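REQUEST
  id: r-88c1
  op: predict_structure
  target: SGNH hydrolase-type esterase domain-containing protein
  payload:
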Amino acid sequence: MTMTAASPKTSLCAVAMTMLLLWATTHPAQGQGTVNFTFPSYGLANDTINLIQNADYLDSFFESLLQLKATGRGKVNIIHLGDSHIQADFITDVVRRNFQNDFGNAGRGLIVPGRVAGTNEPNNIRTGSTTTWKAKRCTYPEQPLPIGIGGITVSTEESDARISVKVDNTLNDYSFSSVTLFFQKDPSSYSFSVNDATGQELGITGPYEEGMANVSRIELNNCVDQVSIQAVKSNDDQKQATLFGIELENGNDGVLYHAIGVNGAKYKHYNAAVHFAKQTAALDPDLFIIALGTNESVEYPYLDPTLLYHIDKLVQSLREVNPETKFILVTPPDAFRRKVKPNPGVEKIRNQIIQYAVENGLAFWDFYKVAGGKHSAAKWRERGILRPDGIHFTKEGYEYQGNLLYEAFIKTYNHYVGLRHP
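RESPONSE
  id: r-88c1
  status: 200
  body:
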């Protein structure tokens, strides 16, 4: 058989068709790429105003989501930052699973070994250690340990100390094929070995030199659902292991939804965390969702006059190392003071957060208003989804909030897709 070379005209047609196909796969037709979302409702929210406000600011983020949905390629990283409403991961677990169901699952994302630190941790992970580690939360800035990306730090001087990490795949597959460690990384730091359930070493990082970035990534040959992270003394200079956080990915395209929450946290606590803002750059975030303000309102009638300063300092420090990242500020829900008294401080804090977002062109989700506004805490209590302390919610209450946040996202995203030029 004789092979015939393609004519120039044929080649041009082929190139044109290839370009057209490439354009078609990356430019969905109007209406394509939208998401249908429904969820069980308690009827406590104002659905008509459940939108992300100043949404035009988020166009580039929504375009990244649309391209991910259209092509199935790429990753979108979201960091959701908060306080005790976030530490247990009830809200963010729902938002994460919704995002990953609609746009792809790239893994569990950032975790902190809460049980090792002596505090609560999400239900979809379980950490443990036979060693007693020193621990610090960012809410105690006067204590000596440095704080990094997770808002909680654990540290030990015992060589051979181990932390076990196991993910729960009941509701979503969080098996992982890479482990990224955020830790104090200098000549005094122990090496870290990542081992499988039988103790076989899967990878090791270290020793280190002065000035290295406080992050190391270890790729595994296969997806696993548990590992142990072991401190290893490689030379006499190594004397401690100080861990700030652990990120778990599965190697797939999709959404990574990182939840960072610390009980009692305020804006000022993350500003006081020496490594926090800088280390977020390693996660390459497309979007920050900052949901703080409840603890600032608890002190009513005293309200910190420097709140706007601390909101701005946090946003600017995150923007400095993530210049293309977008921000959504979330207002706190109505709450009681001393379990039964109305707390006017919540609305005052809410107003300042919105003032900052509007004056600086950021997006915001006015959850205070969406949830019913002034005195709405009483209605949530009547439905049995607000705890007796009048501030925290039941698991069901938090899951409802997670679905409301995702609904606001999807309504706003679908609006973007519908108006987007093809």
